[in-house]
Amino acid sequence: MSRRRWTLALVALLALALAATAFWYRSARLGAPNAQPGTPSTAVQRPAPAAKPPLEIPADEIVTVRRAALTQVQPMSGSIRATQTAVVKAKVAAELTRLTVREGDSVKAGQAIGDQDPTEFDWRIRQADQQAQAARAQWDIAQRTLANNRALVAQGFISPTALESSASNEAASQATLQAALAALELSRKSRNDARLTAPIPGVVSQRFAQPGERLGVDARVVEIVDLSRLELEAALAPQDAAKVRIGQRARVRAEGLTDTVSARVARISPSAQPGSRTVSVYLALDPHPALRHGLFAQGEILLEEQSALLVPASAVRLDRSKPYVWLLDGDTVRERLVVLGPRGQAAGVPDAQALDSGVTDGARLLSGTLGALSDGARWKPAP
């Protein structure tokens, strides 16, 4: 055998030896699966994991399912408005010389609150009065002329045609007098319109003009609101508005108020708003000294009452595709799928949620404040 063949054979033997050594070392580390029974193994023996301790749950984290009367509610929100408001506007074009009220002042119906410069209107009254006097004098002359002509016609001194002309002049003079008297009354009305008065009783909410400004016709001066009758205008979706009826009671919480205000559905708009397609519902509010025109408020309309299995809404988990609860079954926590019913208010159950199926009356559930849980976990009351 040649020297080259001896070299190749030696290399092959070394490779087989290295492979056998690696196999033996791996088998010793992992506990060779094909070792004969009774052969000592060099694999490391790991201890079995210890059982998890039971989850300690405080008593206030446990809620009980109970059957009770549930009052369904319809959430709503909107702005509070006075049912009676008025904006005092200038009826004539003139300078505002006096305005005696400011925001927050109370006024009565018919109370004078300001004046516009009456100089121009006084002169117009004098002009119209003089024109009326001139027209009255012309009418008196026409009447006397007509009476004289009638006598002359009877004596045959003038023709009937001249009498007819006198009668026409008398009628025209009388019409001119009536027009002059009408112009005089219009001038007097303009003079009266220069005095600003409150059309309704209430409180001044806004002041738009200041003395010294020249106001055009229909220029706004002040706004008056009657706070004795307030209402809330709420916009509801069509499917929600279909549940609302006139006369239903409601509870309203306004900005800045800690307590609720009672209300009643007074009116429902017969048409939807263009664009948003919402329906306006108007609720008459009970009197309250802290309510103001323009405040934002929210609350619930009490729809109807029914008996149902109730739990606090926080006990229902909604982080998956189907709602579920954590049920305490003995000393084990179980996951239960539930079918949700209506949501509303019930005595002793704040923010009550009705469950149509999945649990029974008296079942104990975990509230939603606990973190992630696993089905089958052990639990025990917290000390």
- Into which percentage range does the β-strand content fall? 35-45%
| Largest sheet entry | 8 strands, antiparallel
Q: Helix count?
A: 4
Structural class call reads alpha+beta
- For the record, give the distance between the C-alpha atoms at the N and C termini, rounded to a whole number: 88 Å
Secondary-structure element string = HEEEEEEEHHEEEEEHEEEEEEEEEE
Task: Give a structural overview.
The protein is an alpha+beta fold and 383 residues long. It folds into 4 domains: 1-46, no CATH class; 56-72 and 306-381, conserved putative lor/sdh protein from methanococcus maripaludis s2 fold (Beta Barrel); 76-83 and 224-303, Efflux pump adaptor protein, beta barrel domain (Elongation Factor Tu (Ef-tu), domain 3); 95-222, no CATH class. The protein has helices spanning 3-30, 119-155, 160-193, 238-241, and strands spanning 55-57, 62-64, 66-82, 85-89, 94-99, 106-107, 112-116, 195-197, 202-207, 214-215, 220-225, 230-236, 249-254, 261-272, 279-285, 296-312, 324-329, 332-337, 339-346, 349-357, 364-366, 379-381. The strands form 6 sheets. Strands 3, 12, 13, 14, 15, 16, 19 and 20 form an 8-stranded antiparallel beta sheet that branches. It has a 4-stranded antiparallel beta sheet with strand order 4-11-9-6, with no helix packed on it. α2 (119-155) packs antiparallel against α3 (160-193).
